């Protein structure tokens, strides 16, 4: 016996090497198309089962049965295919689940659907809630079955639990999410026809349709309880199924469930046999070809679509029904908010309002792009987006306030600097309109260039008011101070010409200026009319030319220049007359009339 076993093994190996590949000849059996990885956390494709599907050139429809482990899914599929347990899907009687991953019956059932020849495959899925698996793995199986199938049979025992609704809701949302990631968020998800199959021993009382309808009704929540609100959100997420669901009840086939595979139809409960035939007709009536983006898929297209969805499922980080979607998205929100904070922290405040708004919008766009790439769930995403926008708006308002504060501090400093500058120009030793205008222009330009942000408008008004007031005050005092300066200058030049230089022309000119300012103007002009007289304008122009120019600021150099002039006069007074005699400068005062050399008159 052992020798014949090894002979068979060697023969198979030799045939494999001779042909170069192992092709499937008998498709009348079950094949795995999706298998779990060793860690039972992700899924991978099985080429053996895919080959059974790829050979189909007609449109494909898939009927998948999903439900808890040990709920009789494999037995139910064999019944729908009219196969025994020894021919069809493997049925396990032990406590661990028999089916691993997703299996397909290799021979499709050919049907004519609305005049189109369609190949219907039946899919058996690994039951959820078994030991040694993560919730994420169960959710991937459920979601993948939801995306692949044309008819999704949700096989439940006895009744509908809240956990069953939550799991279905999550699977539909998961399928919708990753369908969108593959086909684009703008492509509508086309859910499978959902069949609630309730296997129960009692058939009296409420119908399964009423049971499903009541289970999916909103729970009243007048007190705003968060837990009830979450329960209703789960029901809202099933809205995509719309009226695309139906319900059916099926009694238990026999009390001795471990012997079902050895029983013929005549030994099963007659009510079960009758309802089983009705179930076959119901499934056949709701089967439609698998439609993706408006067109049916053949074998190769179906496999390609399956590969894309599976890659998205395995690549994408997804939550599980054991961890609320909001909790999963909370981490995404924190990362997005951190990105926004980091972007806004790079700003060099203050900025003008438009620049800040544009930077905020660019940052918001980048943050929302990150959120769209990483968030989970379209329905849950709406609430998460609102929360993200609310948190970002808080940060944005803080940045706006900081910008206003920085702008106010900067403009206040510039305003104070200009105010001090204007005060300094008001008390020039030698008043100069040109110097005041230069300082006025410089102050105004520096304020316009350096003061930025929302506070600028307010400070511009203050600045214009302050500068206008300073200018009016300076002009008012300028003529009076210049008049007084000229009077004082004429008296000083009288003393200089009389006693220091002893230059009579200087003294005469000084006296003429003094008499003109103090006598003639008081007799013929008022002080105000003097300032509008062309003669006064000539005097002012001469004064401005002497006092201030871009090259020489006499106000700054008045004291050094005065000292130099005094030294020069002193030097000339002591040494100049001895060297050059009395004829060096004419006419001079002659003080020798009463000297010892004067000739006698007698």
UniProtKB/TrEMBL annotation:
Signal peptide range: 1-23
Q: PANTHER family, alphabetically?
A: GUANYLATE BINDING PROTEIN
What protein family does this chain belong to? Belongs to the TRAFAC class dynamin-like GTPase superfamily. GB1/RHD3 GTPase family.
The GB1/RHD3-type G domain extends over 57-156
- Keyword Phosphoprotein appears in the UniProt entry: no
Question: What Gene3D superfamilies does the database record attribute to this sequence?
Answer: Guanylate-binding protein, C-terminal domain (1.20.1000.10), P-loop containing nucleotide triphosphate hydrolases (3.40.50.300)
Give the matching InterPro entries.
Answer: G_GB1_RHD3_dom (IPR030386), Guanylate-bd/ATL_C (IPR003191), Guanylate-bd_C_sf (IPR036543), Guanylate-bd_N (IPR015894), P-loop_NTPase (IPR027417)
The regions listed as transmembrane in this protein's record are 557-574
Q: Which organism is it from?
A: Prunus avium
Specify the protein name. Answer: Guanylate-binding protein 5
Tell me the GO molecular function terms: GTP binding; GTPase activity
Give the residues annotated as coiled coil.
Answer: 378-405
Q: Which Pfam families match?
A: GBP, GBP_C
The UniProt keyword set, sorted, is:
Coiled coil, GTP-binding, Hydrolase, Membrane, Nucleotide-binding, Signal, Transmembrane, Transmembrane helix
Keyword Nucleotide-binding in the entry? The reply is yes
């Amino acid at each position: 016996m052992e020798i014949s076993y090894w002979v068979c093994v060697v023969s198979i190996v030799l045939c494999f090497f001779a042909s170069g590949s192992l092709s499937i000849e008998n498709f009348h059996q079950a094949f795995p198309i999706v298998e779990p990885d060793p860690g039972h956390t992700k899924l991978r494709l099985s080429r053996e089962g895919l080959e059974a599907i790829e050979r189909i050139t007609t449109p494909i429809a898939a009927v998948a049965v999903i439900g808890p482990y040990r709920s009789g899914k494999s037995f139910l599929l064999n019944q729908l295919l009219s196969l025994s347990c020894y021919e069809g899907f493997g049925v396990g009687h032990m406590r661990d689940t028999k089916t691993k991953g997703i299996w397909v019956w290799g021979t499709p059932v050919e049907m004519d659907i609305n005049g189109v020849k369609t190949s219907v495959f039946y899919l058996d899925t690994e039951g959820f809630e078994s030991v040694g698996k993560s919730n994420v793995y169960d959710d991937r199986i459920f979601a993948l079955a939801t995306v692949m199938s044309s008819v999704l049979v949700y096989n439940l025992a006895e009744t509908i639990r809240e956990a069953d609704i939550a799991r279905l809701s999550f699977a539909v949302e998961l399928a919708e999410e990753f369908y969108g990631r593959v086909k684009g968020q703008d492509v509508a998800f086309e859910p499978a026809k959902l069949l609630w199959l309730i296997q129960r021993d009692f058939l009296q009382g409420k119908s399964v349709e009423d049971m499903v309808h009541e289970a999916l009704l909103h729970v009243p929540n007048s007190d705003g309880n968060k837990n009830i609100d979450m329960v209703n959100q789960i029901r809202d997420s099933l809205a995509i199924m719309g009226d695309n669901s139906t319900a059916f009840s099926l009694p238990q086939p026999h009390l001795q469930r471990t012997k079902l595979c050895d029983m013929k139809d005549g030994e099963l409960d007659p009510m079960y046999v009758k309802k089983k035939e009705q179930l076959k007709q119901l499934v056949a009536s709701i089967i439609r070809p698998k439609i993706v983006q408006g067109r049916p898929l053949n074998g190769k297209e179906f496999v390609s679509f399956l590969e894309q969805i599976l890659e998205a499922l395995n690549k994408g980080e997804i939550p599980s029904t054991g961890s609320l979607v909001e909790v999963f998205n909370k981490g995404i929100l924190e990362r997005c908010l951190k990105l926004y904070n980091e972007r806004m922290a790079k700003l060099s405040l203050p900025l003008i309002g438009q620049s800040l708004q544009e930077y905020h919008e660019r940052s918001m766009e980048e943050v929302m792009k990150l959120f769209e790439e990483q968030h989970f769930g379209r329905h849950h995403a709406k609430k998460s987006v609102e929360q993200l926008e609310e948190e970002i708006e808080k940060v944005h308002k803080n940045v706006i306030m900081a910008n206003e504060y920085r702008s106010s501090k900067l403009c206040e400093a510039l305003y104070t600097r200009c105010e001090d500058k204007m005060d300094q120009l008001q008390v020039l030793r030698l008043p100069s309109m040109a110097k005041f205008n230069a300082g006025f222009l410089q102050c105004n330009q520096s304020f316009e260039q350096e003061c930025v942000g929302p506070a600028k408008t307010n400070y511009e008004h203050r600045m214009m008011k302050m500068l206008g007031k300073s200018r009016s005050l300076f002009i008012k005092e300028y003529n009076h101070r210049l008049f007084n300066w000229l009077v004082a200058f004429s008296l000083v030049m009288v003393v200089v010409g009389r006693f220091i230089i002893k230059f009579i022309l200087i003294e005469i000119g000084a006296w003429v200026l003094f008499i003109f300012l103090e006598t003639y103007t008081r007799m013929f002009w008022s002080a105000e009319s003097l300032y509008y007289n062309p003669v006064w304008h000539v005097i002012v122009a001469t004064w401005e030319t002497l006092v201030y120019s871009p090259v020489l600021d006499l106000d700054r150099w008045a004291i050094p220049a005065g000292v130099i002039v005094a030294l020069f006069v002193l030097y000339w007074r002591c040494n100049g007359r001895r060297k050059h005699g009395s004829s060096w400068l004419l006419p001079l005062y002659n003080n020798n009339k009463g000297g010892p050399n004067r000739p006698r008159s007698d």
